[in-house]
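[job 4471] stage=fold_predict status=RUNNING
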Amino acid sequence: MIIKTFKEPPIENNNYLIIDDETKEAALIDCSFVDSNVTKTIEEHGAKLKYILLTHGHFDHIAGIRQGEAKVVMHENDLGILKQANNYLPMFGIPEITTPQIDIFIKDGDVIKLGNIDIKVIHTPGHTQGGVCYLINDVLFSGDTIFRESVGRCDMEGGDFDQIVESIQSKIFTLPDNITIYPGHGPSTNVKWEREHNRFL
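[job 4471] inference complete, writing structure tokens
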């Protein structure tokens, strides 16, 4: 499995490209204003983008989606937030977008097949009601649920601090210590480090 990280505007989002190096199927986890390096990397590996996997529906995670280039995947509980994207984009000098259509709705426990890779969906509400993490073997893509020594903000629509703490403690901190966490913003971390050092938990 190949993992490539792209830090994208408008808020330094981490977008992650996953490629099954056997079948050359690819998935992009979150899709901000994706630069040409994403497409270039896909082409360099002879891969084809199959999915855009959204961790949640906030504008900075969806603004780069070009409808039709891949199947867009999200939890249904974030549809309302997704449709509000254009309320926030002008604040960052970004033109309005056409709200992307969701091709596949996911729920907790679903497994998405990407070539020979199994991607497990873990529903972790708290930052938003439809927030999810994606687990692939010993790697967790956590979106804005958990960051290195921090958690996602809970003061916007759909946010609930008690709920995000419960999600992290029951869904993430029950995973093995060595699981690497790739968050939606900032540096990577791991389960053991966060269990021992995250001041919010």
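[job 4471] summary: The longest strand covers residues 2-8.
[job 4471] exit 0
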